[in-house]
Amino acid sequence: MSNSHSPDVAVKEKVDHLPLSPGVYMFKDRKGRRLYIGKAKRLRNRVRSYFQDSGGHDGRIRVMVKKIDDLEVIVTDSESEALILENNLIKKHQPRYNVMYRDDKTYPYICVTNDERPRVYPTRTVINDGSKYYGPYDSVGHMKRMLETIRKAFGLCTCAVSRKTIDRTRGAPKWHSCFDDYLESCSGDWELEEYRETVNKVERMLNGRTDALVRDLKEEMSIASDALAFEQAARIRDSLEAVRKYSRRMKVVAKRQVDRDLFALKVDKEISEACGVLFKVREGKLISKFHRFLKNIDHLKKGEMLQSFVEDYYTGQYAGAIPDEVYVSDELANDEPLRQYLREQRGKKVRVHRPQRGDKAKMIRMALSNAKLLLGERKLEKEKAARKRIPHSVKELKEQLDLDRLPRRIECFDNSNLQGSDPVASMVCFVDARTRKSGYKRFNIKTVEGPDDFASMKEVLSRRYKRVMKEKQQIPDLIVVDGGKGQLSSAVEALREIGFYGECEIIGLAKRLEEVFVPGKSQPIMIPKKSSALKLLQRVRDEAHRFAISFHRNKRSKRTIKTELTEIKGIGEKTAQKLLSNFGSVESVKKATLEDLQADIGNTMGRRVFDYFDQQKKRASH
User: Fold this and answer.
1) E strand or H helix at 301, and its extent?
2) CB 458 within 8 A of CB 490
3) N or C end of the chain: which has fewer CB within 10 A?
4) Using an 8 Å Cβ cutoff, are 370 and 291 in contact?
5) Which residues are CB-contacts of 283 (< 8 A; sequence separation ≥ 6)?
6) Residue 164, Cβ neighbours under 10 Å: how many?
7) Cβ 21 vs Cβ 60: under 8 Å
8) In 316-403, which residue ranges form alpha helices assigned H by DSSP?
9) What does residue 120 show for φ and ψ, rounded to 5 degrees?
10) Closest CA to 414 of 545, 574, 296, 590
């Protein structure tokens, strides 16, 4: 692009010439990397919305727009084509600002090859070679049970290699060859017509069409028996029993023999991920479930995430036959392209609906419960992985202070008062060098008169760790008190009195020279100024100080409101808070004109406040 224009202006010039046609657009950065790929019913309108202030975009999208240096579009004949193209391009390029999924190839499938004599075998790799892939299966165990049923029901070989790879020269197969073939029981020797007919039955079972399959097997067994072909009838009987056994294991979830897919999605904001779950119902029976985790979702609404999950599933090679009905847990952001695509694939209209009550809503709730459970497991996995990644600053702090254990959980205390008035204290919590806001505590000093930091520290630590012992809460690895020897001595005394001393390490951090005081040592420890350990302690101490000051200001502000503004007849705390919010302080309220006060809280209230402070001024002047 020309350097004479800023990237934003140059892209906007392209936007003005875009057609009002469906298609796919790709935003690129200066290095040509794709930032985002999307689809649109009208390309010009959709792309232009990114550059309009009224677009209502969140921070993440605004950051992306600033990085846009080029734009590429591909026009399609329909929204349906745009949907397919968008998903294919996203899978290929994996742009930074699109929703990301865990790798499809980690899921197991059952493949039926596109050969003259199709092979049925397990795989984790989906190849666009005309083969059919059934799955993906949530677990290898489920897939193996299906393969075992296929072998028992139809005697079909389910190895992953063809007969041509077998080495009989040494009287034994290669390690990767078909063991059934070596035993001369491989279905590869069957007549082609019989073989294809059996594979057709296998596909019907993989698609969940067990009721019709049972009827056909019954009919075949009856014909063989009437023809006195008792061995063939016995084989069909065994097949029938295996299929029936498999069918009985499937849960009946619909009163009528209906085919439907149910999609549900749950979001966990704490780990910034979502989990999409699919229940596949065929002939009224739940035949399988499938889930995927969605990342890079902070900028999306729930309906957009769910739509992305549904579209990604149906445009993938693992979707299989399109059902009669599709049910979703939330309204999709724009389901028209999806409806059009499903109609084209199935050859007739497919219902896409969000159920509100009845059996379908109950199934959606079950799917949501599964998604919630899977997200919980995912969170535990991430927490476990995070525990293994201990920050360098935590390790160095242990070494610098010669601690007995890693200070992974640090609790730090600080006091705050103004010449002894409104005394408060704070406790902040850091886990693996990061703030843990849910562990923060505020304390109003109750037993100390005047500005006595030592006594205040003693009171706060006594109250905190009495409660920790009583409620059996998590014990920190390290306690930090803001101050030198005096504060540390008061803290140690408090812990001794309540019987908590020795449960964890405790230190004092003095502000002036950043000296670290340790119980039992007369001389402080001086941690090198550039050490990550000292920087961690400073961050912890500064955060405790910030939190204490903030609490103290809020408390003082509330007291000021109560003692001055709320003394005015008819002025409550809500009105007083509004005045402080708009004027900034009580002093500013005193200086405000009658017109300003009345404009803020009304004529009557404004007059009362103005008259009250006007009379104060007059009394002060006499």
Assistant:
1) none
2) yes
3) C
4) yes
5) 208, 209, 210, 211, 212, 257, 258, 259
6) 7
7) no
8) 336-346, 358-388, 392-401
9) -120, 120
10) 545
Residue 232, class by beta-carbon neighbours within 10 Å (0-12 exposed, 13-18 middle, 19+ buried)?
A: middle
Q: Are 122 and 147 in contact (CB under 8 A)?
A: yes
Reported as type and span, the H/E element at residue 615 is: helix 603-621
Q: CB atoms < 10 A from the CB of 76, how many?
A: 20
* 116-170 per-position pLDDT tens digit: 888 888 887 777 777 877 777 777 777 787 788 777 777 777 665 444 444 444 4
Does the CA dihedral 236-111-197-214 come out positive or negative? positive
Amino acid at 142: H
Question: For the segment 178-237, what is each residue's pLDDT rounded down to a tens digit?
Answer: 544 443 445 556 778 878 888 888 887 777 777 777 777 777 777 777 777 777 677 777
CA distances from 25 to 10, 12, 18, 65, 607 (A): 16, 13, 10, 14, 60
Closest by CA to 188, choosing from 232, 149, 223, 155, is 155
- From the number of C-beta atoms within 10 Å of its C-beta (0-12, 13-18, 19+), residue 226 rates as exposed
CA distance 17 to 13: 7
SS (H, E, C) 181-216: HHCCCCHHHCCHHHHHHHHHHHHHHHCCCHHHHHHH
Residue type, 134: Y
* CA angle centred on 549, ends 543 and 552, rounded to 5°: 140
With contact defined as beta carbons under 8 Å apart, do 20 and 78 qualify?
no
Quick one: DSSP state of residue 525?
B
**Distance between CA atoms of residues 448 and 423, nearest Å:** 8
In three-state secondary structure terms, 522 is coil
Complete DSSP assignment for 89-108: HHHHH--TTS-EE--GGGS-
**Six-digit token pair at 354?**
């969000």
3-state SS of 26-59 is: EEECCCCCEEEEEEECCHHHHHHHCCCHHHCCCH
Please, are residues 509 and 545 in contact by the beta-carbon 8 Å criterion? no
Rounded Cα–Cα distance for residues 580 and 567 (Å): 15
In this structure, what token pair is assigned to residue 138? 């949530």
More confident residue, 190 or 265: 265
Q: Looking at residue 201, what is its pLDDT?
A: 81
Please tell me the distance from the alpha carbon of residue 241 to that of residue 213, in angstroms, as a whole number.
12
Judged by DSSP in three states, 577 sits in helix
| Residue 127, CB-side half-sphere exposure with 13 Å CA sphere | 9
Alpha-carbon span 31 to 614, nearest angstrom: 67
Strands 505-509 and 478-482: parallel
pLDDT, tens only, 333-362: 888 888 888 888 888 898 999 998 888 898
Find the helix or strand (DSSP H, E) in which 318 lies: none
CA atoms within 13 A on the CB side of 236: 19
Report the C-alpha gap between 56 and 65 in whole angstroms: 13
Handedness of CA 171, 172, 174, 180 (dihedral sign): positive
Task: Say if CB 371 and CB 276 are below 8 A apart.
Answer: yes
Domains and their CATH numbers in the chain = 7-98 (3.40.1440.10), 105-207 (no CATH), 260-384 (3.30.420.10), 394-556 (3.30.420.340), 564-621 (1.10.150.20)
Overall pTM surpassing 0.90 (yes/no): no
The residue with tokens 């404009």 is 599
- Extract the tokens encoding 270: 């704490």
